[in-house]
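Appendix B. One record, verbatim.
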Amino acid sequence: MKRIITLITLVLVSASTLMYAQSSSETRQAERKAQREAQKAREKAENERNYAIAVQALKEGKFVLEADQLVFKRGRSAFVSSTTNFVLMDGEHASVQIAANNALAGPNGTVDGSRKEMKITTDKKGNVNCSFSVQGIGISAQVYITLTNGGNNASARISPNFNSNTLTLNGVLVPLSQSNVYKGRAL
């Protein structure tokens, strides 16, 4: 009889421990899910804030697209430093600097000059497109920037007016006051 009571007690203790462990596991899973959802909500709010700031900087004409990837004419790409590869606009003044210091290096240099014919449009999805030309001493280029809705990720397609060496810079668009770029000597 003692063995039966001991056995029943062990079964009950094991069952209650198992139920507690399952409820504890479910609680932890619910907590992790709530944390993931809260993190996603924070990231979404941050991306929306960055997008609004980038759109405002574009409209004011005081921005820098800090590029961390350079895509060449035929699709080859290279990761580059965002402090030396950028498109900068400060009102009527604009600069485009390319400094690909790696095995895939192509054209390097800075186009520095006045900004002309700026147009900004927004498509149905909220993506902002900006186009303008930069006219410097002996060199000029067309610049087409696309700011993707939902963040400050942007790309700039740069088409020189005197050759077909089109390049694309991918990176983030930030206000000029928040930029951290190093500008070289213009061509």
